[in-house]
Design brief:
mainly beta, about 0% helix
């Protein structure tokens, strides 16, 4: 089991910045990746950024060059730095952990989500 808690969402004007935090606890030794997803109103959840256990990162095309995912220092968690925010970034942002189970299966764990609203 992995427990994820997000924080840092809020209201910001277009062009501004926010930092989201995701604190992870539990069976974190088997983490394959920590990821940020978002779900805009009325749309499907989409992958925004990935940080693998090996340190590789990947981003959705819509946020490349504006968002940065990084480790929370020595703590088991990640940040999502969001810069040059646009109204279309408005969404609920979710932290996700992909974990390798003892049975070699992959398991998903989700945080409760944090709202980000970008005003024009």
């Amino acid at each position: 089991q992995v427990h994820l808690v997000e924080s840092g969402g809020g209201l910001v004007q277009a062009g501004g910045s926010l930092r989201l935090s995701c604190a992870a606890s539990g069976s974190i030794l088997s983490l394959k990746s920590l990821n940020w997803y978002r779900q805009p109103p009325g749309k499907q959840r989409e992958l925004v950024a990935t940080l693998t256990s090996g340190g590789s990162t990947n981003y959705a095309d819509s946020v490349k060059g504006r968002f940065l995912i990084s480790r929370d220092g020595a703590k088991p968690g990640v940040y999502l730095y969001m810069n040059r925010l646009k109204p279309e970034d408005t969404s609920v942002y979710y932290c996700n952990a992909l974990v390798l189970g003892d049975d070699s299966s992959e398991y998903d764990y989700w945080g409760q989500g944090t709202q980000v609203t970008v005003s024009s």
